[in-house]
């Protein structure tokens, strides 16, 4: 209102000292300024809504979930993956587990499986992960890795190639036959990653 009063005062001061054409031009400028003030006020209100999370809370929540900064339940994970058209492999849901999804690089999407929220967490602890990589001719790329005495390799019951190093029992790689998809399975418990890679039908996309 103060800005409108100042404009009215400007009109009165100039009236009588300017030509009819000038007053018409001034009126046009005044109208434009009023519209500008109203527009800025509207955007200011919207901006406050964003600051207080009124309009942006949903978008912020999704961004945190996609960037591995917000734990999710199984149903939340499925929704985020499908609604954002992500290709993420897992071994199925686990009872009461929580999940972190890091998908900033869609060529390497990391799914971390966390224990239930009722279980004490440690910042130094490692948790199981399955990383989905985009890898050209993944089946052959993984299969060709097992060619010396320090590594092992085989084709599992799903027809996918499996590669692992004997010095590191925590990480196992799987090349999906017929797709440009390679998986890296990590488990802090020795032998668990290899057991998962062997078992038929366990590794599949989230849907």
Would you count the extended β strands for me? Answer: 9
The helix-strand sequence is: HHHHEEEEHEEEEHE
Strand content: 15-25%
- What class, by secondary structure content? alpha+beta
Whole-number average pLDDT?
79
Termini separation comes to: 55 Å
Spatially, the strands of the biggest sheet line up as 2-3-4-8-7-6-5
Main β-sheet description: 7 strands, antiparallel
Computed over alpha carbons, the radius of gyration is 30 Å
| Number of structural domains | 2
The count of helical stretches stands at 6
Shape: globular
Stretches where pLDDT is under 50 for at least 5 consecutive residues are: 2-7, 14-21, 23-56
- Tell me roughly what share of residues is in helical segments: 25-40%
Tags for this entry?
22% strand; disordered N terminus; two-stranded antiparallel sheet; 9 strands; 207 residues; alpha+beta; 2 domains
Short description:
Helix content is 38%, strand content 22%. The protein has 207 residues and is an alpha+beta fold.
Description:
There is one protein chain. The chain has 207 residues and is of the alpha+beta class. The chain folds into two domains: 2-51; 70-205, no CATH class. The chain has six helices and nine strands; from the N terminus they run ααααββββαββββαβ. The chain has helices spanning 2-14, 20-51, 57-66, 74-83, 138-143, 192-198; strands spanning 89-90, 98-102, 108-114, 129-134, 151-155, 161-165, 168-175, 181-186, 204-205. It has a seven-stranded antiparallel beta sheet with strand order 2-3-4-8-7-6-5. Helix 1 packs antiparallel against helix 2. The longest helix is centred in the first third of the chain and has 32 residues, at 20-51. The relative contact order is 0.10.
